[in-house]
Amino acid sequence: MLQSKFYKEGLFSIQDVSSMLVNDALAPEDGDVILDACSAPGGKGLHALEKVRDGHVDLSDIHDHKIPLIEEQAGRLGLSNYEAFQGDATQKDYPRQYDRIIVDAPCSGLGVIRRKPEIRYERKAEDIDSLVALQLAILSNIKNYLKPGGILVY
Predict the structure, then answer these.
(1) Residue of 66, 60, 57, 75 lying closest to 9 (CA atoms)
(2) pTM of the model
(3) According to the model, what pLDDT value does residue 145 have?
(4) Tell me, what CATH number does 116's domain have?
(5) Mind spelling out the 3-state secondary structure of the chain?
(6) CA gap 75, 80 in Å, rounded
(7) Does residue 54 lie within any of the structural domains?
(8) Can you give the pLDDT at residue 146?
């Protein structure tokens, strides 16, 4: 599929249905300024950008080496009204307020246990506890960048 001429030309992307449904909940509107925190490789945020005319999406990820993945996907799709940058969502001072925010926080992966049954044996209680603390820290920081009346999808 990734070798498809149409894929290479940016005519479609490949995402899980659950990833695509994020933008149904986000309900982006024309002109919205959107943040996709914890973004790499950028599928959800770039999908949101495709849905808004005259909008802008900031895509942020803690891992600097993943930013080129976001930029590669945006380039393949012919998208330009975005900025991709490194940032720790627990403490990043984001450059603006947002109409919509996507937080695809680091998680246990237990939601995909049907497809990856080995996860059951790889996770410990302390892993879950640290993820809960991390997700709370992310949400505690991110909420400060949502405009009044905005939508945050977590």
Answers:
(1) 75
(2) 0.87
(3) 98
(4) 3.40.50.150
(5) CCCCHHHHCCCCCCCCHHHHHHHHHHCCCCCCEEEEECCCCCHHHHHHHHHCCCCEEEEEECCHHHHHHHHHHHHHHCCCCEEEEECCCCCCCCCCCEEEEEECCCCCCHHHCCCCCCHHHHCCHHHHHHHHHHHHHHHHHHHHHEEEEEEEEC
(6) 7
(7) yes
(8) 98
- Two tokens at 99? 């109409």
Residue 61 lies in a domain: yes
Sheet with 82-86: list strands edge to edge.
82-86, 56-61, 33-37, 98-103, 146-153
Residue 125 domain flag: yes
Amino acid at 65: H
Check if the beta carbon of residue 105 is closer than 8 Å to that of residue 134: yes
Q: Are 35 and 94 in contact (CB under 8 A)?
A: yes
pLDDT at 43: 94
Question: How many structural domains is the chain composed of?
Answer: 1
Q: Mean pLDDT per segment of 10 residues, for the chain of length 154 residues?
A: 78 81 92 96 95 94 96 95 97 96 81 68 76 94 97 96
Tokens representing 88 are 């720790």
Domain that holds residue 35: 30-153
